[in-house]
Amino acid sequence: MKYLLLFIFCCCFQLKSFAQIDEVKMIQTLYGMEKKAIVEEFMNLSEPDASVFWDIYASYEAERRENGRRVLETLNEYTQNYNVMDDAKADKFIQDVYAIDNVSDKISKKYYKKVKKALGAQTAAKFTQIESYIKTAVRLEVMENLPFIDELTED
Questions:
Q1: 104 Cβ contact partners less than 8 Å away, ≥ 6 residues apart
Q2: Is residue 33 within 8 Å of residue 4, measured between CB atoms?
């Protein structure tokens, strides 16, 4: 199932498609739906823990998706400015990435604490592990398809 998620994400997440907001919503919707199935399978919770977890997860996903929208906007800006990159644009891109990462870390810590309080540290750790795995897999795919600054310039 995790490979299906990665396949869907890769098919939808072409550099040229960053600009269109409707596609951003489509990617987030597809990713969110498939991702939930992966998390559900990995977490393998029984009732009543499952209903408690999914209530927390819904709030988590709303915050994560908002930050994901910022990621897509930042990547779109990077691709639009790639051929005219200067120091100011490069600095802005990296500062935006740092800000996004900070928000992502805060969201992760916030929801680790919520799941831990409601369901215990092992369940919270398991949730954090699968989220980290998915985030890392997606980030790797993006990085493999995103050219480095000056990578495509002719000498």
A1: 64, 67, 135
A2: no
C-alpha to C-alpha distance for 105 and 57, rounded to whole angstroms: 16
Residues 6+ apart with CB under 8 A from 146: 15, 75, 78, 79
Total-model pTM: 0.75
Q: Evaluate if residue 18 carries a pLDDT over 90.
A: no
Which residues, 6+ apart, have CB-to-CB distance to 128 below 8 Å? 108, 112
54 closest CA partner among 139, 99, 141, 114: 114
pLDDT digits (tens, 9 = 90+) for 45-82: 998 999 999 999 999 999 998 998 898 899 889 888 88
pLDDT tens-digit series, residues 128-138? 999 998 888 77
Q: Which amino acid is at 132?
A: S
